[in-house]
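Problem 12. The chain below contains 170 residues. Write out its predicted structure in token notation.
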Amino acid sequence: CSSDLITGFGKPEALLGRSFSLIYNDEQIEWIRQNVFPHLEREGKWHGVLNAHRKDGSLLEQDASVTQLEDGTCTCVMHDITGLREREKTVVRSERFLSNIFDSIRDPFCIIDRNYTIVRANEAYAQLKNRTVDDLIDKTCFRELQGKDAFCEGCVIRKTLQSADPCAEE
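Solution.
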């Protein structure tokens, strides 16, 4: 990516030899001095997230990789992850919302994937099976609940996966 797309300062040369303060505020510069520079001295490279500002003042979250060269100078590769962070926040909010709904279901309820692995179960389901939710998650239903090495005879989950028709079992 060219720097005009990331920072708004035009060509990459516009940033060469310029002060950190061009894109980082005082707090971020101090954090870089206390964390990144000592790590570079020890390891010769650093990778992490930095918060910068574009020329127009808008926030720019960067995935940054810094490598110290033999002459003591550094080379930096930055990727704009601002949009990625926003999408991650949206996913977290959606997950929290769905978890609240899932946890509020009073009837026994679980979700089992194509490998017959229990990926989600509510407390009512765990109580019905005399287990804790943690005991059930990431376990195959046939092994954990029936003590078998393969899916059960007449398995409603298998029937659902094969037919793609909804099936239910009491």
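Discussion. The CA atoms of residues 68 and 74 lie 4 Å apart. Students who got a different answer should revisit the alignment rule from Section 12.3.
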